Amino acid sequence: MVIIFEIIAFLFSVVLHEVSHGLAARSMGDETAHYAGRLTLNPLKHLDTFGSILLPLILYIASQGSFIFGYAKPVPYNPLNLRDQKYGPAKVALAGPLANIALAVLFGLLMQILPISLQLKPLTDLIQYIVWINLVLAVFNLVPLPPLDGHWILLTFLPASFDRFKQFYIRYGLFFFIIFLLFFSQLLLPLISFLFRVIIGA
Question: Chief location of this protein (predicted)?
Answer without folding.
Answer: membrane
